[in-house]
Amino acid sequence: MRVGVPKEIKVLEYRVGMTPSGVKELVSDNHEVFVETNAGMGIGMTDKDYENAGATVLATAKEVFDIAELVIKVKEPQLKECEMLRSDQVLFTYLHLAADPEQASALIKSGVTAIAYETVTARDGSLPLLTPMSEVAGRLSIQAGAFSLQKANGGRGVLLGGVPGVKAGQVLVIGGGVSGTHAAEMALGLGAEVTILDRSIPRLRQLNDIFGSRINTQYSTKDAIDSLVIESDLVVGAVLIAGAAAPKLVTKDHVQAMRSGAVMVDISIDQGGCFETSKPTTHAEPTYVIDEVVHYCVTNMPGAVPRTSTFALTNATLPFVRALAGKGWRVALEQDEHLANGLNVHAGRINFEAVAHELGYEYLSAAAAIAE
């Protein structure tokens, strides 16, 4: 199969869909890999590195899209990229369609078969292709939050770890999944006082086993959010409902009641955000202020550390890429129900129920799409 890896064009996105080592694996499977020139520069990989791995380097994205049967990316295709997709292609990347009606419409119009990293599942119900980026985003959320808390950056001038004789900063993490757990771990490492909210009692027990008395765990209720948000120096939103838009758990009223210079980091922004005042930002302008509260809502947080992120992502995606390239998408999805859960769009139809519901499209199951 002909596999294409275009250069990412989202603002300040330096990741790439595949490392040279991933290319080498595909070439050893007798596939052809085509990489856009300079696609790997952001992770320190040159065109020569890709050529040495067996790839053919092409001058433009259009050449890559034109020749590829399977397109591997990191971020959702921008609208100009959607125009280059066609009905006989498979696109494998992050999509986050529930919060992006324009992209959904463009993918439907293209006729492409689009498989989303973020809805592929594992036997234990986890999301194996979202996990590595959730780990990175969780850790980065505390770095970004700590930086934003500095007075010169608009924050209230709080050092998360405090110093002897001065109280540590208070961090609230809403959501105890992968990103929330890693955020809590980083905040603890800086010496902050950390509280995690979650609605799963089994998960709260797991968090207690992991962290013991070093953190506070609390069942997530409106009352708990009401009291804890306004007391916190840093609030991290780490809520995920697979494929669906994130619920708005922190309201405008909460923000108005928060301390001047407090910071909010919304990891859930790819799915629309879990703060009512959230709006997407980029690494070029990562923050904005509402009611004297600093908001950090970058939609591609892991892009800030592209080398770490790309290697972690390729490690997770490569087995699925090999299956898609080796078997074709229909057979690969027929044989792997967990990969089939990644099918979001095919032949102009939405194949993930939460996305169809959120955006108001008719839903056609992945099984029915595969059988067509």
Task: Give the amount of beta strand, in percent.
Answer: 15-25%
Using only CA atoms, what is the Rg?
21 Å
The number of domains: 2
Kindly identify the CATH topology of the largest domain: Rossmann fold
Query: Quick check: average pLDDT?
Result: 96
Tally of extended strands?
Answer: 15
**What summary fits the major beta sheet?**
8 strands, mixed
Structural class: alpha/beta
Q: Count helical runs.
A: 15
What does this protein structure show overall?
By secondary structure, the chain is α/β, with parallel strands linked by helices. It folds into two domains: 2-119 and 306-371, Rossmann fold; 131-299, NAD(P)-binding Rossmann-like Domain (Rossmann fold, 3-Layer(aba) Sandwich). The protein has 15 helices and 15 strands. The protein has helices spanning 20-28, 47-52, 61-67, 79-82, 101-110, 131-148, 178-189, 201-211, 222-231, 252-257, 306-327, 329-335, 337-340, 353-359, 366-371, and strands spanning 2-5, 32-36, 56-58, 70-72, 90-93, 113-116, 170-174, 193-198, 216-219, 234-237, 263-266, 287-290, 293-296, 343-346, 349-350. The strands form two sheets. The protein has an eight-stranded mixed sheet with strand order 3-2-1-4-5-6-14-15, sandwiched between helices. Strand 7 (170-174), helix 7 and strand 8 (193-198) form a beta-alpha-beta unit. Helix 6 (131-148) packs across helix 7 and helix 11 (306-327) crosses helix 12 (329-335). It is globular. The two termini are 22 Å apart.
